[in-house]
Amino acid sequence: MTEKPCLLYCHCAYAKVVPEETRREVLKRLNDAGVAFEAVPDLCEMSARKDPALERLAATGAIRIAACYPRAVKWLFHAAGAPLGDDQTEILNMRVQTGDDVADAMCRTGEASS
Amino acid sequence: MSTVAEQNLPVVNALRVVLYEGQGADALDSAERNSLLNGLLDSGYAVTCARDGGTLSAPDESPLMVLGRFHEGAAPAIADAEDRVDVFTQDITSLATEAVLERVRFVREQTALRVPGEWHPWFPVIDYDRCTNCMQCLSFCLFGVYDVSNEDKIQVRNEDQCKTNCPACSRVCPEAAIMFPKYRSGPVNGEEVSDEGVEREKMKVDISALLGGDIYQKLRDRSDQAKERFAKERDETVALKERKRCLVEMQKDMDIPMEALMSLPSPDEIQRRAAEAKQKADDAIARRMRDRDGNYAEDGLKG
């Protein structure tokens, strides 16, 4: 991943599986970082709806996503007909990582590790 | 992969909200932006924070609502040069979060866009790296969530027919290939699958088999027994108790919400649907086998 990645944050709005404090922390840090980013209410809903926005996001090329388990995120995009490029995608897991860890990884500059 | 046209849920664009802080607008202060972001996301809107630095996705055909603290307190009128995207603008200078949300809601209602959050997004997601196309999920699910694609591959067709919080089909998948991303524990929630995880999932299938075939067979048997007893004893209470006991057992074994079990159709209808799904699965498998054998034969001839 060499280009500047698009930053995508999932709010997981319709379930309580991502700890509230983690979500709020990551969103606040992205907000304070002064960079452009995309935020979506719920990737699951968008996937089931085949929301064209997923295609748009997958098409950005390099992308760094704060959401849940990478395996779930990968196949949610795939199910919507918008597969992510394996070598251009980095997925941070807010279900298991701390808000600080996810935010640090999202906001760091330079190349992303996939 | 299935095409969008094959899906049951209608594809309807959602409103994309843009928090604009570029040329011609003042920057929002951090607390204001944070409050707006949380409010919009909690209400189900996708938000693009447009600021200098960073990469954003290109516009698609979803309508845009651009919010900003525009200079002179007036939002500029903006139109898409290609006339593909509807663009709405709103000056939010001195508007509280609630008032901004109200204006966004108004635009969404005017444009008949998708209502966010009207359906709880609970549905299976297939990991095709693991799926072997055995069709057990298709045979198992009685609610028509699964189907076969034109390429005879298993696919999730009717997401909205899935029973909220019911992960039962993931329990019958021998490869742990079915995920419910909002489930509480792994590997059903999408956690990486360990060998132990696969064994654990397999074990659940085996236990269910040990208890007397598939759980629907079990339900049918119990129900038949209950019917017999009902016929003999003319005791409706006993029959109902029996059914309830069976359902409670299944609920424990497979973590199926009682609500999902209670919405199961009559035993006859269960039998009909199960047979129909199994037939569909068997047909798809048979077609794939034929194709495979045909390919082998062709390769043999070439060789």
Shape designation of chain A:
globular
End-to-end separation of chain A in angstroms reads 8 Å
Q: Based on helices, strands and strand pairing, what is the structural class of chain A?
A: alpha/beta
Q: How would you name the oligomeric state of the polypeptide chains in this document?
A: heterodimer
The level of helicity of chain B is 40-55%
How many distinct beta strands of chain A?
4
- Which structural class matches the secondary elements of chain B? alpha/beta
SSE topology string of chain A: EHEHHEHEH
Question: Kindly, what is the distance between the CA atoms of the first and last residues of chain B, rounded to a whole number of angstroms?
Answer: 31 Å
**Nearest-integer average pLDDT of chain B:** 79
Approximately how much beta-strand content do the residues of chain A carry? 15-25%
The major pleated sheet of chain B works out as:
5 strands, mixed
**In total, how many domains does the architecture of chain A comprise?**
1
List keywords for this structure.
heterodimer, A: 114 residues, alpha/beta, four-stranded parallel sheet, B: 303 residues, five-stranded mixed sheet, two-stranded antiparallel ribbon, 9 helices, elongated, disordered N terminus
Could you provide a short overview of the structure?
The complex is a heterodimer of chains A (114) and B (303). Chain A is α/β, with parallel strands linked by helices and 114 residues long.
What do these coordinates show?
The complex is a heterodimer of chains A (114) and B (303). Chain A has 114 residues and is of the alpha/beta class. In chain A, 39% of the residues lie in helices and 17% in strands. Chain A is built from 5 helices and 4 strands, in the order E-H-E-H-H-E-H-E-H. Chain A has a 4-stranded parallel beta sheet, covered by helices on one side. Chain A is globular. Chain A starts with 5 loop residues before the first strand and ends in a 7-residue tail after the last helix. Chain B has 303 residues and is an alpha/beta fold. Chain B folds into 2 domains: 97 residues; 169 residues, no CATH class. Helix content of chain B is 44%, strand content 11%. In chain B, a hairpin with a 5-residue loop joins strand 7 and strand 8. The N terminus of chain B is likely disordered. Strand 2 of chain A pairs antiparallel with strand 3 of chain B, so a sheet runs across the interface.
